[in-house]
Amino acid sequence: MDRRKFIALLSTIAASYNLKFPLALAAEEAAPAAVASGGFPDLVGVAGGTPAAMFDRAIAAAGGIERFVRQGQKVLVKPNIGWDKKPEEGANTSPELVKRIVELCLKAGAAEVRVFDNTCNHWQACYGNSGIETAVKEAGGKMLMAHEESLFTPVDVPAGKVLKKTTVHQAWLDSDVIINVPILKHHGGARMTAAMKNLMGVIFDRRYYHSNDLHQCIADFTTIAKKPTLNVVDAYNVMMRNGPRGVSTDDLVTRKMLLLSTDMVAIDVAAARILEVDQQEIAYIAKAVEHGTGSNALDKLRIERLTM
Amino acid sequence: MSYLKRVRQLLAMAVFAIFVLVFVRFDSFGSLLAAIGLPQFAPALTAPFMWSSAVVIAGILIFTALFGRVYCSVICPLGLVQDLMLRLRRLIGKTGYRTLPSLAVLHAIVAAMVGGTWLAGYMLPTALLEPFAAGGRIFAGVFQPLAAVLFKYKSSFFGDSVNWLGMASLKAFDVAGTAIVVAMTLLLFILCWRWGRVYCNSLCPVGAVLRMIAGHSMVKVVIDTEKCVSCGVCEKICKAGCIDAATKTIDNSRCIACFNCLDSCRLSGILLKAGANKHTKTSAPTSNGRRAFVGGLAAAAAGYFLPVKFQSAPAADTILPPGAGNHKDFSSRCISCHLCVAACPSSVIRPSSSGTGLRSLQQPSLVFDLGMCEQNCNLCSQICPVMAIKPIMTEHKKFLKIGEVVYKQNLCVVETNGTDCGACAEHCPTQAVRMVPYRNNLMIPQTDPSICIGCGSCEHICPVRPDKAIIVKPVAEQTMITLPEQEKLAPKAENEFPF
After folding, report:
1. DSSP secondary structure string for all residues of A80-143
2. Pick from A111, A151, A198, B267: most CB atoms within 10 A?
3. Better-predicted residue by pLDDT, B440 or A198
4. Is there a contact between B203 and B263 (Cβ–Cβ < 8 Å)?
5. Chain-centre distance for alpha carbon A257
6. Rounded to whole angstroms, how far apart are CA atoms A201 and B122?
7. CB-based contact A150 B156, cutoff 8 Å
8. How confident is the model at residue B278 (pLDDT cuts 50, 70, 90)?
9. Closest chain A residue by Cα to residue B375
10. The domain that contains A152 carries what CATH number?
11. For B482, what's the count of Cα atoms within 13 Å in the CB-facing half-sphere?
12. How far apart are CA B136 and CA B6, in angstroms?
């Protein structure tokens, strides 16, 4: 081997050795896609349609999916898939809605759309019975596993009051766009689950939250560098009691609504109104406002209300 | 004749592969269970009046009457495990076997004792010696946890998208449980090392039944006394030790139909034949049939009547799989094959070291550290080969109480930290644990044991350590709960935004 060949070989080895490292670094540094608010409403509420049709209306009113997803970007869609329940039981995000979002993202040129949740029941049962795994595959998206600690990466939460560090799913860190798609439900511990509470499904150790001031931890997590680009709340069938798992479909009230906002706090405040819970009751909302995550003053926001 | 041995080996390898697949990845290969679970002799005996069991038993007996103990070399999981051990023995460098005594009387006594205790519902002897159970425990206690570790560490090879390796359920390595299985496996290996498949002709209850028939089977291995020069080559190759070259005889009752001997003789002095002819001698002369019968009868009676002290109601100190009924029924049926342990997707069914004591061996019970007994799952009740876990529909299972909640407020986060938690109520499928208002705008768990099904969701998720603030205690009898009628929620006007 002559000198030139040797150097070429050496640099190839060096390059492949470093291949993963700079990519990962770049991904972790990627700030949430900066979305200009110019001219668009802060919060869109749609009522009266199917979840997918309402999403179409809402996203159109918010400037179209192209405002959030650009050509070649990696998108993460994070629904609530926490329970081994069927779609009609209202415990998981509507698969039809998830499917529509994945489709639109791919249509907008997303390089890849990935979906996961760190579930409460057995993950394969949840992925299957929720209908979400099938919906995502049909739409051309990819389901990720999230049941194993090795799939999560430690992160610091510098602004956190209680939650100083946690482990987040790698896909949360290396996605360019994150679309948070919770379903609105009553919640025995947190009072309500919607946008901010749904993010408990992207970290591994939920027990830490539960034993260290649940509300503060939920609010603290909203301060990490990587935030959802967009939040969509499924409020078609709303679990009004016995949440978040629900005992039977008697716990549901059909509201045929959908909310969309880039502001996790604003969308949760609006969701609380639908759930008929005073936002004061939901301690994490005030704590998130204190962190500057978003605004709880709906009267100061531009809200678009659409009916179908 | 060599093709017979090859066919036997291929079939045995296929059956063994299915065993490994079923026990190691029940989620993917569970449907193959019918192929290996159905033709098992002892499990079929537990429900002799079901037509499928009757067909299986009759089929095995008739097949044995025709062709000898092919069952022992092809179907029996412990037979296959022993053949692997014998292969290992050869690899290490120890070859050759010797002629063994008949041991017919001992075998009859052991098997009859197992049968007697089994009928009496005292399961320790059956659990120890029945080959399906012993084989199952080796697969579930050694192979599966090792495979689970492999799956866990190799799943990232395919990245984080849903992949087959990652879909394996995590399995606990129960040190005590695995130690027992490993010890028994080593014991079996020592037996194999010294005397080949002696277990099959001295301790195995299934072997004891089959040998009574195999001695008179239509097709059997025989020695042509005209050609045989008593060189002993076939004797050395016989892992059942049933060939005596000196007397030119074969004890066909002990022959496990491996056909290894057929090719060993250069003089074609040993062959497979239907019936005997004038140049062949078949059975070693045995005069101990009567002794075996009397001894067996006495052992069966002793087995049935003596261990009465073990038949008193066992302590109800474990949580049983859904469908088990109560501890007395369960402990008198379960043979500890650990199929349910291998199949449980959330790995809550575990071999239990406590509870049964000397009553049985590692009968399973529920532990909730890795998961909860999932509401929509009734897998264990579908697959239990001896109906120790009786079939239960998922619609019923949702309301089947297998344990009962115990809440310890003095340990609870809400009480000790003064912060909201609610993890237990969040996971409770029946709201037997619900959150109620407490001081300082907090919510605290409140339990209603009457609607608790004991699924362990609350215990699994409770964040308090080392002792959890909410646990499930065993119940004496599994019963159905009735959920109270809920008041209907008023429908809401649509298209009216509350903001």
Report:
1. ---SS--GGGTSS--HHHHHHHHHHHHHTT-SEEEE----SS-HHHHHHHTSHHHHHHHHT-EE
2. A198
3. A198
4. no
5. 18
6. 48
7. yes
8. low
9. A84
10. 3.40.50
11. 2
12. 25
The Cα–Cα gap between B243 and B239 comes to 9
ipTM of the complex: 0.90
What residue spans define the domains of chain B?
2-310, 399-481
Q: Does residue A8 belong to any structural domain of this protein?
A: no
**Nearest alpha carbon to residue B282 among B213, B217, B209:** B217
B495 and A250 within 8 Å at the Cβ level: the answer is no
Burial group, residue B399, by CB count within 10 angstroms (0-12, 13-18, 19+): middle
- Strands A74-79 vs A112-115: parallel, antiparallel or unpaired: parallel
Task: State whether A216 and B345 contact (CB < 8 Å).
Answer: no
Question: Bridge-partner residues for A79, per DSSP?
Answer: A181
Under a CB-based contact definition with an 8 Å cutoff, are residues B259 and B1 in contact?
A: yes
Distance separating alpha carbons of residues A58 and A56, to the nearest angstrom = 6
What digits encode the pLDDT tens for the residues A276-299? Answer: 999 999 999 999 999 999 999 999
Which amino acid makes up residue A6?
F
**Per the CB < 8 Å rule, is B423 touching A241?**
no
Question: CA neighbours within 13 Å on the CB side: how many for B52?
Answer: 10
CB-nearest partner of B495 from A47, A144, A243: A47
Q: Give the pair of three-digit tokens for residue B146.
A: 């090792």
Closest CA to B335 of B391, B382, B378, B387: B387
Distance CA A156, CA A168 (A): 10
Domain at B399-481: CATH code: 3.30.70.20
Nearest residue of A to residue B462, measured between CA atoms: A207
Distance to chain A for B23, nearest Cα, Å: 19
Handedness of CA B293, B299, B303, B305 (dihedral sign): positive
Measured between CA atoms, the residue of chain B closest to residue A187 is B426
pLDDT tops 60 at residue B119 = yes
Stated length of chain B:
499
Condensed to tens digits (0 to 9), the pLDDT of residues A164-181 reads 999 999 999 999 999 999
**Contact yes or no for A294/A262 (Cβ under 8 A):** no
Q: Which residue stretches of B244-391 are H helix?
A: 289-305, 327-331, 339-343, 379-383
Type of residue at A280: Q
- The whole-number average pLDDT for the span B415-442 is 95
Boundaries of domain holding A57: 31-307
Residue A109 CA: distances (Å) to CA of A78, A177, A228? 19, 12, 19
Residue at A129 is within a domain: yes
3-state SS string over B124-164?
HHHHHHCHHHHHHHHHHHHHHHHHHHHHHHHHHHHCCECCC
Distance of CA B255 to the CA centre of its chain: 26
Task: Evaluate the CA torsion angle B178, B126, B364, B472 in order and state its sign.
Answer: negative
Interface membership of B450 toward A (CB under 8 Å): no
Q: Cβ distance B419 to A212 under 8 Å?
A: yes
Q: B162, A307: Cβ pair inside 8 Å?
A: no
Burial label for B162, CB within 10 Å (0-12, 13-18, 19+), is buried
Among all chains, which residue has been given the structure tokens 């027992």?
Answer: B180
First to last CA, chain A: 73
- Three-state SS at B70: helix
Give per-residue pLDDT as tens, B229-274: 999 999 999 999 999 999 999 999 999 999 999 989 999 899 998 8
Structural domain total, chain A: 1
Whether B456 and chain A come into contact, CB under 8 Å, resolves to no
